[in-house]
Amino acid sequence: MINSVPRHQSAFAGRILELLHLQSGDYLLDLTLGDGGHTQEALEAGVKVVSLDIDPESIQRATSFVSDKFSPLILNPQQQLDSLPEFTWLIINANMKDIGSLAKSFHLPLFNAILADLGPSQYQVLSPQRGFSFQTDQPLDMRLDPNLQVTAADLLQALGKKELVRLFSLVDEPEMNKISSIIVKTRKEHPITTTQQLSNLVARAKKQKTSVHPATKVFMALRMAVNLEREVIQDTLPQLPTLLAPQGHLGVISFHSGEDRLVKKFSQEAEKHSLRVINKKPLVPDSQELTINPRVRSAKLRILQKN
Questions:
Q1: Backbone angles phi, psi at 249, to 5 degrees
Q2: Where in the chain is the domain with CATH 1.10.150.170?
Q3: Which of 23, 83, 252, 305 qualifies as a FRET site for 165, CA 20 to 30 Å off?
């Protein structure tokens, strides 16, 4: 059942090793394992990889896809180690915001490259019961970490109109006021608990037809809020420079303006973190990649290098 959804195709697949200047024998920290595409690409090139993911189902899927060639050493974040065992592939079921303390407790090496591919995988979006997709009717959950207590339905019930407006503004939703008003009015009559209910409400507010589903940004904003994604990005980025080896590269792939603004702001402060910006404008997938994998059309990659 866990492999019922096709494998997620990573952004910048086939290019990421070159872009991050990785060679056989180097160490890569993959902060968002997902379905393991970037990790597998690195492993097959002889790179040693430490992969993190907060979602235990993602770890199960990634290991099932990659296990024919590589068997991972899987560590629990609560484990205590006197020294780090030899490894080719190490997985830690943890949130990337905890990487600083994990690096100390597990005696992780300095990395030649660090990669953060932000946003959920195709599996998480399409998986039944996760509540990420407006394409089928699902409970409004949206938790990447099953241990989190608050769901998207909880937020829709609890947030005031001003808080909803602010939340939707973070993803540049133009109809944020109208959508927030409809949500507040509707929940007085009955709770909004399914993806179809929310999708229909947003469609009522946004009568103008576009090629993108009208609920796309609202769903994105709720997912970010449930998983505290903005806070995680802001907490994580300043920890990464100390984990990079000299001349090591940091790559961050974002998928919408809210994420990219946070990464851009960090890049503008690069010197403070002993980093320098490699590409002033973010890299985007080329036409060949978009033909193969149109889902990555909004991907932006910013790269920085340790001094």
A1: -115, 140
A2: 149-226
A3: 252
Q: What is the per-residue pLDDT for 122? A: 67
Q: Candidates 3.40.50.970, 1.10.560.10, 3.40.50.300, 3.40.50.150; correct CATH number of 16-123+230-306?
A: 3.40.50.150
d(CA 114, CA 123): 23
Counting Cβ atoms within 10 Å, is residue 117 exposed (0-12), middle (13-18) or buried (19+)?
buried
Residue identified by tokens 């189902």 is: 57
CB atoms within 10 A of CB 20: 25
* The two structure tokens encoding residue 231: 């806070």
**Secondary-structure class of domain 149-226 per CATH:** mainly alpha
Residue 31 is given by DSSP the state S
Please provide the DSSP assignment of 84-103 as one string. PPP-SEEEE-S-GGGHHHHH
pLDDT cut 70: percent of the chain above it: 95
